[in-house]
Write a structure and sequence with these properties.
Elements (H helix, E strand, L loop, with lengths): L1 H38 L3 H5 L13 H7 L2 H33 L5 H13 L4 H10 L7 H4 L6 H11 L4 H9 L4 H9 L4 H16 L3 H6 L8 H17 L4 H44 L3
């Protein structure tokens, strides 16, 4: 009798949890769904609150305005280059640094203290700009790639993950003739898929969404990243609205409203397409890299 009551109580509890989590899922997903349907709807209907659950009066003028902008495709190419080159630097430096700091090397604690110190204190925006200028990196790809080549948080996650490999495994590799670099490439990295996938996602999203460095370090429009191009498209439509009066201004305002949602979709689509392939590693990799023992 007691066992039956326990089973019934467990089922009720599971049912409540499913209902609560379903509501949370709807609350989280609806804003994204609304942006998608609003980007395809008549902006007047969106402003008036007529768009709630499905597109109303399909309108693609916003997407046409975005796609017909030649700078957009150049910005896509620039961002792909910045992200690819940046990821190569990020993963190489973070992996090598994390592996070295996970081993028992002289001065490891001092080095970790100095590295962690940079998480809380930095030179500031103006000193960083002066440094980039003195290095001759203004208006170059390197201004978008090299500053912040290593994230201290990601380095700590990587180091913590690597420190979980047993000393016996490292010694066995050394006895078999592996150097430290050979041990990293042949033993450690093949077993580190989850944490590597998570760090790639962290760095990749950071590079893809980067626009502030472009504002600071780039004045050549041909080198602007995608996010800066999209920002300029949105601002330009707002400026056009302020320069026009009457019904024309209202039409431009409606177009700007449609472009606003389209810009969000265009900029987020590649990341949303990539995330499902890495999602299965995300929780596992983050937890393994964040917990020691």
């Amino acid at each position: 009798m007691k066992k039956t009551a326990v089973i019934t109580g467990d089922k009720i509890f599971d049912f409540i949890i499913i209902i609560v989590l379903s509501l949370v899922l709807l609350i989280v997903l609806y804003p994204l769904y609304f942006i998608i349907i609003a980007s395809f709807s008549d902006p007047l209907r969106v402003i008036s609150g007529k768009v709630m659950f499905w597109p109303v009066d399909i309108n693609l003028l916003g997407y046409q305005r975005i796609m017909n902008n030649a700078e957009l495709w150049r910005g896509y190419l620039n961002t792909i280059i910045y992200t690819s080159v940046g990821l190569a630097f990020n993963m190489t430096l973070t992996t090598l640094g994390g592996f070295a700091l996970s081993r028992r090397i002289p001065g490891r604690n001092v080095m970790m203290l100095l590295i962690t110190f940079t998480m809380y204190f930095s030179g500031g925006m103006i000193p960083n700009y002066l440094l980039i200028r003195s290095l001759g990196m203004l208006n170059t790809m390197w201004a978008m790639v090299l500053p912040g080549a290593i994230s201290v948080f990601n380095l700590i996650v990587m180091r913590t993950f690597f420190s979980q490999f047993s000393v016996e495994l490292m010694e066995a590799a050394r006895i078999d003739g592996c150097s430290a670099f050979g041990t990293l490439c042949r033993i450690v990295l093949p077993l580190s898929g989850p944490v590597l996938s998570v760090i790639v996602l962290y760095y990749g999203v950071s590079h893809w969404n980067e626009f502030f460095k472009g504002i600071l370090y780039l004045s050549n429009r041909t080198k602007y990243p995608l996010q800066l191009i999209l920002r300029n498209i949105l601002i330009q439509n707002r400026l056009d609205d302020s320069a026009i009066a009457g019904d024309a201004a209202a039409n431009v305002l409606l177009l700007a409203e449609s472009i606003k949602y389209g810009v969000i979709i265009v900029s987020s689509l590649p990341v949303m397409m990539l995330y499902p392939f890495l999602q299965k590693y995300f929780v596992k990799g983050a937890m393994i890299g964040a917990i020691k023992g």
